[in-house]
Amino acid sequence: xxxxxxxxxxxxxxxxxxxxxxxxxxxxxxxxxxxxxxxxxxxxxxxxxxxxxxxxxxxxxxxxxxxxxxxxxxxxxxxxxxxxxxxxxxxxxxxxxxxxxxxxxxxxxxxxxxxxxxxxxxxxxxxxxxxxxxxxxxxxxxxxxxxxxxxxxxxxxxxxxxxx
Length: 164
What we know:
Blueprint: H1 4-16, E1 21-26, E2 29-36, E3 39-43, H2 50-53, E4 62-65, H3 76-83, E5 87-90, E6 95-98, E7 114-115, E8 120-126, E9 129-134, E10 139-144, E11 151-152, E12 157-163
Antiparallel strand pairs: 1-2, 2-3, 3-4, 5-12, 6-8, 6-11, 7-10, 8-9, 10-12
């Protein structure tokens, strides 16, 4: 199975290239990326488990990635100044944001915490799979931009980190 970082890199490479469609299959896992009018359609069907999935028709799950959003003029002064010089950790997929591994546990990170490149900062649940999101940068968490249990979109900002 591809790791989240590898999928992110694939998305970026496809976005920066002139190709319109990419398909990859390994060990029963399939990844299909298509460009559609400035956005990308990402399809990542999981291995089917015969006992659970047998009664359901076989149809790929697709998630349309929105094109980069334009912020309103009112919001720009607020969002631009805190982001200057900061690294933004974004959601690699559509799903539900969880700040801790379980409801009883403490959050992975809090505002002011130090993180390293491989620190797990949250979980995004997509299609009943818990995907750990790593910081990808060493620094200090400046802001947490989403609430626990909130639905997040592909590319949505989750955290602001001041790099060291």
